[in-house]
Amino acid sequence: MATVSEYIDQGMALLGIPARQKGPVTKGWNKAENAITDSERAAALTGNVGLAHAYSNPPTMALDIDDLPKARTWLEERGVDLDTLLDANDAVQVCSGRQGRAKLIYRLRGGMAPLLTKQITAPETGEMVLELRCASANGLTVQDVLPPSIHPETGLPYTWGGKGDWRAIPVIPDALLAIWLQELVAGRGPRKTSASARTVDATPRQRARVADMLRHVSADCSYELYRDMVWAILSLGWDDGESIAQEWCLTVTCPPKDPSI
Description:
261 residues, alpha+beta, five-stranded mixed sheet, three-stranded antiparallel sheet
């Protein structure tokens, strides 16, 4: 079983959590100065321990699945096979022992700033389907509980799962990153929203959000991500959307080629 000091060795930023709870309770816990990044402080932790995604090096994120069937459908509609992600040879999962749920941990690409958390809910019920978790709207971290913490409901320890190794957390797949960025570029932010809302006004705030999102990923990327980012920009319906897309595309010397050609 991994120790918290080993987590520090892998660039994970940690948070102390009271025993049998799922989150920190101290004021300002999500601020960078309160994240634990040295082995001595980590070794002194008691109770449960959380992963501070935004302050890890490089930042981490969680694809947190609350409803497997609905999440599978939502991702499939956007070109991502959830079962393939879960069964990947490098997949790193945090397992809580609860049925119908799953959590995959990834690193963000080198040089990427932490991304806003995106929550997807079922339009008909408002219940959570999945979350893409990293940072809050004000740039602070969100967190996920790490093994061997004790789950407050089951009384059992969280465990590492998947075919991969937590010491080699994989980089978020291009297709999943593209979905995340598209959701954020579309202006729906970190709040709980259904997939049906698509109104995007060209307000200064929305323009600033889009500019910030585009800074998070280089146009020197895979064809699929390059294509999906251009589509996301154009789908905003802004009069200058084509110019924004062209400006982003020009940050790379040679655009990636369509592998199907």
